[in-house]
Amino acid sequence: MFRYKLEVDESVLLEKKVFYGNKDREHKLVITNKNILFEREMGIFNKSYKVVDRVPFESIKVYKDQVQMKVRKNKIIVQTTNGDLEFRCINVVDTGVVADKISYVKTGSNFIRRTTKKVKNIGSIIADVGLLTGAVIGGAYGAKKIYDNNKDKIAEIATSLFRK
Asked: Given 39, 51, 59, 139, which residue has the most CB atoms within 10 angstroms?
């Protein structure tokens, strides 16, 4: 923890291994309550660590209480005032955890909770459309049933209209 040079009121919330940078090397992603840090292991025998990038949460863009972040499979792209921050997680599960933590620290809202809310809204829309479709199909079926029961009367009315 001491190697990150954290502020007094800053604490580590999450550490994960990710692929980051131009050469897509393995780094350690460290999310604190104020910054996102990327740390790289240096040396083969004598291991030392170096913080290669520090992105403050203040620079991450937010629109309508949502972090401007794109999550695709194991890749995360976060929009910042200094350009896009792009990295890949080791697996899809870690991607969800990291995206969730970034969103939570920046907005106080949970990425997974927002996604679940969207799915529930879509489910209710589909249910409403399903009920509407059922009513239309039922209406068409009902109209056909009325027609079948009153064919003769309808035919008489139709022919009487054309005779005049």
From this structure: 39
pLDDT digits (tens, 9 = 90+) for 68-125: 999 988 999 999 999 999 999 999 889 989 998 999 899 887 756 656 665 565 555 5
Residue with tokens 């809310």: 117
The residue with tokens 């920046």 is: 106
Q: How far is CA 126 from CA 86, 115, 122, 134, 141, in A?
A: 35, 17, 6, 12, 22
Which CATH topology does 2-109 take? PH-domain like (2.30.29)
Could you give the C-alpha distances from 115 to 19, 25, 91, 99, 157, in angstroms and in order? 25, 30, 19, 12, 57
| Cα dist from 98 to 29, 43, 140, 144, 157, whole Å | 9, 27, 51, 57, 71
Query: How do the domains of the chain map onto residue ranges?
Result: 2-109, 116-163
